[in-house]
Amino acid sequence: MLFASVSHNIGEQAKSLKASAKQIPFAAAKGLTATAKDAQGKLTSALPNQLDRPTPFTMKAFGIEPATKQKLYAKVFVKQDQLKYLGFQIAGGVRTPVRRALVVPKGVRLNQYGNRPLQGR
User: Fold this and answer.
1) Which of 13, 36, 57, 109 sees the fewest Cβ atoms within 10 Å?
2) Residue 62 DSSP symbol
3) Residue 14 within a domain
4) Which pLDDT tens digit goes with each residue over 40-54?
5) Is 59 part of a structural domain of the chain?
6) Which domain holds residue 29?
7) Contacts 24+ apart (CB under 8 A), 83-89
8) What CA–CA distances, in Å, run from 35 to 22, 77, 80?
9) pLDDT tier at 1 (50, 70, 90 boundaries)?
10) How far is CA 117 from CA 97, 108, 112, 114, 121, in A?
11) Residue 61: exposed, middle, or buried by beta-carbon count in 10 A (0-12, 13-18, 19+)?
């Protein structure tokens, strides 16, 4: 006959589990932050499909607020300066000029993004 003996020290496992429990909020924060960074990347890569030749400034529109052990949530948001004009792309509506609207003359040279280049730069 073959006899097998199995023994296990539950006390050691309990200590190990208790030590690991302290790392759970850290691991959750890392996972939430990684998810937010992934979402930021996906939103940024989708911009050229939604906008015609977005400028580098527009491509940097999305920011993240990372999660921490104390704050177990992460945020992906549109930065305030870009939200002023991207809000119309997101929610719809009509964008009216802040000051007086200028008519762009025919044949004016445009930059690679389809905008008039700034004077003096």
Assistant:
1) 109
2) E
3) no
4) 999 999 999 988 899
5) yes
6) 23-91
7) 86/58, 86/61, 89/50, 89/51
8) 21, 13, 22
9) very low
10) 18, 10, 9, 9, 8
11) buried
Q: What was the pLDDT predicted at 121?
A: 54
pLDDT digits (tens, 9 = 90+) for 56-72: 999 999 999 999 999 99
Alpha-carbon torsion (79, 85, 87, 90), positive or negative: negative
- Asked whether residue 17 is domain-assigned, the answer is no
Residue with tokens 């496992």: 13
The predicted pLDDT at position 64 comes to: 96
Please tell me the predicted confidence (pLDDT) of residue 120: 56
Check if the beta carbon of residue 62 is closer than 8 Å to that of residue 29. Answer: no
2 CB-near residues (< 8 Å, 6+ apart) = none
Lookup result for tokens 């044949």: 107
Counting the structural domains of the chain, the total is 1
CA separation for the pair 53, 47 (Å, rounded): 9
3-class SS of residue 77: strand
